[in-house]
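Researcher: For the record, we're logging two predictions in this thread. I'll number them. Prediction 1 follows.
Model: Prediction 1, sequence and structure:
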Amino acid sequence: MLEYLKRMAGRGKLNKRILDKAVAEGWISKEQEAEILKIAAEVAEEGAGNE
């Protein structure tokens, strides 16, 4: 599940609500959520720089 969510974050197809659900279900830890959010933020930053 972690690798799947990382790929989704890398494509910009993920948000905090989805990650909160994954943590609540026990699929990932809060530390893993933070790691994925970092990836998502980097992707969003790159996208903003291209506009």
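Researcher: Logged. Prediction 2.
Model: Prediction 2, sequence and structure:
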Amino acid sequence: MTAVERRARFVHLTRLSWDLHGLGVCTSLVLPVAGQPILEIRSATGTALVRITVVRRYCGWAFVWRPWWARLWQRGEWVWAEADNAADMIMSAVTT
């Protein structure tokens, strides 16, 4: 992964975190020494944990979360990182 890709992932996750914060959601941005950054969202009870990451797809950057393999291969299940309403889309998808 290049430095430009790392920076793009960080910027997208930071923007998403700020947008989720505006919706009243607590987030944590995890920056591991090895690996890619992850945005963690805990449920109100603290039991459920959703880990969101950013992947480069054929048309741009997309947010994916667990189970990532299910999200990547189902048409219409990606949330594009450039979308203005990405936080709303993610919250409706992960809370159902």
